[in-house]
Amino acid sequence: MAITDNRTLISNADTLGSWEDELGGTMGVSAGTNNFITGTGSIQGRSTKSTDGILWNYGSAQDLTNVVFYFWFNCTAAKVLATTAASGVTVRFTGATATDWFDIEVLGSDNYAGGWKMIVVDASVAKTASHNTNGTPPAITAIQRVGVVVTTTATAAGADPNFFVDSSWSLAANTPGIIVAGQNTGSIPWTVQDIIDAADVNDVNKAWGTIERLANGTVSINTPIQFGANDATVDEFEDTNEVLGWEDNNVPDGFYGFSGVAGTGQMDVTFGVIAGTGNDRSGSQGLTVTTGGPRWFMDFSTDVDIDSANFGGCTFIGGEIFDLDDPAVVCASVAYVNCNKAHVSNSAQVACQIVTPNTADGVAFMDTDDIGDIANCTFTFSDGHGVEILSGGPSSQNNVGNTFLGAFGGTPGDNLVASSGSTDAMIYNNAAAARTFNRSGGGTQPSFRNGASATSDDVAAVTITLTPLIVGSTASVYLTGTSTLVQENTNTGASWAFSVGASIAVDIVVLEASEDTNDAHVPVRIENVSFTVSQDFAINQVDALPFKG
């Protein structure tokens, strides 16, 4: 497998094909000149103090709902273009008659200095936000021509063609423009640079125009990217320390983004580095992903065959919907900045920063059926809830080290019904059932808002310290009256501290190693130990039996 361009080629513009001018007339081809960026030629036109276009004629009505178009465009007379607001360069959509049209403004002399430029426009956005119309504008389901129109305000020097359209593509809604599948030579993971190389803008046999490294080292992208494919091939992507930016084009929120697809082969995606295990994980050297306009998505939950999707030390800015609710997903030290929503059930969200999420009043940024999926994270209030608890999770959940900063509804310890006061709270229990949240590891005592048929109980964990302990002894903690081991520490010496939920009853057994043999596994007696606890918690010793708690 390889890195591939998944768009549909409309025309490579090396021959005239079905290209027409803005009135349906015949165009010229610039074959054999330097005015092309792919293949061997482009479609050419000349505009001199007039409005002129290069349009592709499908030959019949097309339903272009949410279809995105890509046009390689060049104007060698950019100085005499009208401004963007005066329709210097537009993308036009016509019906069966070339004079029935709507268009959307994309470039002008105020923001374009000439040279090859990839124009990207969603047909539905153009229809809804059209700047100009003529005749009877066609419905989005009845488009016959689409292309680029220029307006010049003065006579350009010379008599040569001065605007060009080269290879053009379309991309259906919810379809990736780039697919990154398989591995690089030598079975090593693909990287961002590999994708840039595959789309090489300087290669006439490539020049996809969808991803490019800018002069400042950042990477500009204008199409959604899929990692992996539904096959038996090993798919692997891994990279660190890159800054990626989605371009500001006329496309809707949620068009740009990353997704994962897997088959029977191994499929792994890694942004950054993750160290440690469990709730002690941390991330570093991650990718920064931001946007110049439209909000972007992440989807690594639709395909259950994904083996791992690891995001360590990343910064995600201006995101829309992040579908991360899958056990394959681990986010460690990820900063979510000004993002809309993250679905995280069954994933691991550890030491993440949620900064001023773009949530409305009464809407949570993260949702999960078990807050144990979220640990040591910090939520900075903007508007809305911090975490929404969904139905289906356990009745007792571990709330480990989560901190809530700012003016969430209520005060820590508040337990409110959905209709009382502000609609915001740190945790919104929408599970339609009772939930006990066992708080440990510091963090904030949360305020709760309870949805219909829901109740919430915040229970802080209790830390118990045993001392003195003889080296070689074993300290074991069992659920009271059972053989279910909760925690154990062997060969400890000095002291040992452990934490349990305050509502959990435990037996504590401390056994000293044998004094008569060298076998540390042969217990002789229960040590005489003292104990302290972090809050009220009764422990009794009865006739040298295990401690009771």
What does the largest sheet look like? 12 strands, mixed
Task: Write down the CATH class of the domain at 6-171.
Answer: Mainly Beta
* CATH topology label of the domain at 6-171: Jelly Rolls
Q: Which of globular, elongated, flat, extended, rod-shaped describes the shape?
A: elongated
Structural class: mainly beta
CATH architecture of the domain at 6-171: Sandwich
Query: Widest sheet: strand order?
Result: 1-14-17-20-25-28-31-34-37-41-43-40
The tally of strands reads 51
Q: What does the radius of gyration come to? A: 31 Å
Number of helices: 2
What's the mean pLDDT score? 90
For the termini, the CA-CA separation is 60 Å
Helix content: under 10%
What is the percentage of strand-forming residues?
35-45%
Q: Can you identify the CATH superfamily of the domain at 6-171?
A: Galactose-binding domain-like
Low-confidence stretches: 515-525, 533-549
Description:
By secondary structure, the protein is an all-beta fold. Among the domains are: 166 residues, Jelly Rolls (Sandwich); 87 residues, no CATH class. The chain has a 12-stranded mixed β-sheet with strand order 1-14-17-20-25-28-31-34-37-41-43-40, covered by helices on one side. A 9-stranded mixed β-sheet has the order 15-16-19-24-27-30-33-36-39, covered by helices on one side. A hairpin with a 5-residue loop joins strand 45 and strand 46. It is elongated, with a radius of gyration of 31 Å. The C terminus is likely disordered.
